Amino acid sequence: MKSSYQPDVIIIGAGLAGLTAAMEITKVGKKVLLLDQETEANIGGQAFWSFGGLFLINSPQQRRMGIKDSYELALQDWKGTANFDREDDYWPRKWAEAYLQFAANEKYTYVSKLGIRFLFMVGWAERGDGSADGHGNSVPRFHVSWGTGTGVVKPFVDKAYEAQSKGLLQMRFRHSVTALVMENHIVKGVKGNILERDDKARGVATNRNIIAPFEYYADHVIIASGGIGANAELVGTNWPDRLGAAPKDMLCGVPSYVDGKMIGISAQYGAHIINRDRMWHYTEGIQNWNPIWPNHGIRILPGPSSMWFDARGTRLPAPYLPGFDTLGTLKYLQNTGFTYSWFILTQKIIKKEFALSGSEQNPDITDKDYWRVVKRLFGTKAPDPVEAFKKYGKDFLVSDNLETLVDKMNELSGENLLDYKKIKEQIDARDRELDNNYSKDTQVNYIRNTRKYMGDRLGRVAALHKILDPKNGPLIAVRLHILTRKTLGGIKTNLNAQVLQEDDGVIQGLYAVGEAAGFGGGGMHGYRALEGTFLGGCIFSGMKAGQYIARL
Asked: What does each C-alpha distance from 256 to 12, 250, 370, 489 come to in angstroms?
């Protein structure tokens, strides 16, 4: 099947990166053909399901909260987090430096002009490994968008439909690209299959029934197809030895269409895929009691107060505390030989500190409901979705006393590994540290430190209290699983988002953006991420590709 529509650019993938590129290209009058294997209901891709966090440096919100941030401090944090150490890190490092300049300067204005707004409190994600020049954010930089991921995606979707109404953009869904068209080493178009119509809701797995082939041509082809997070086989194959053996059981944090297919296809045409072993998976995954996609897991965005125990009931040491060092904690837990761990906390902690990642798990912010946001901050219960998980979630256990709670934990795991006396001794030891205003317990000291920041004190970190004091109950245990999420490596690109071969030669006519390109260059995060940088990386790389093509 050939098309009479003659685009200047073909974009593969209708997620945030692809939509950003389309916006930049169509606003100068060039024509775009946007292809996606999913239905129109899924426009916006993964970003729609996100919490909507954006990494910004020295933003108005930071300044109002008394946070002193700078490009230099952010660069120090990024370098300490990324640990670039490979010859292939040349372009990822260039992308990281360019992205930080964007985040410190143009980014706030760029997204604000599109109508994206932020909550007044800035979140403090990935608090780090405890060293000034090591992993982690020295200051809060996680800006939650008003409307969560839906609020981030909507302006770009609106721009796409606006361009469509002007005849500058055509969107063709249920179009699965299977090959590139290459002539004399120049990419000239794409081939693939039209899939059968499917009316399932957003995020639900769709059919792969082929009804006809297609073939489209353009001078420029942009791959914006996402990462590998839902492809368990690829995740397992690329799993790095440094993180221990690949877990046999992982929850899936992304819809099933995040299959990594186009990354492999691009390699067949000479694209250099680098840093395949760099990936970003979470340790605080819980089974969704009301799943949308297969093996659907949700991440808890924890405050720092829950006590964290491994599968045998040993408290995790610093810096492996809730919200501190994602991959460090993952490595530690993998070395225990188990794929699950436990939080033990109180109702006071869950009320103040638990948030669940995802637009659908934060209806107050997603629906832009000020009253419900106030209720979240000052109400007597946790947000409704958290209370629903506490009631219906398989991984949540509640009891008025610790011994019964431990019995329930052993029953849930089926392994009877937990000893009540051992766990009680560890919690008692922590609780005794609260009798003075000073302590040797790293977690206790850190909680005291974080509450000096107004944002944490108001809405993120519970006041210190004794976990085993009945007035702070009931007690809650949460079983935590490994949760797949982001691809940090990918297709190597230069700063114009042009796809590069192994020798850094440009593949003419081919570009890659978003997660397929490791958010820029084939992995601008290096080994680890500072959070809030995934949506921003999609916007930035899509913008760079779009602006470059627009100038040609």
From this structure: 17, 14, 33, 19
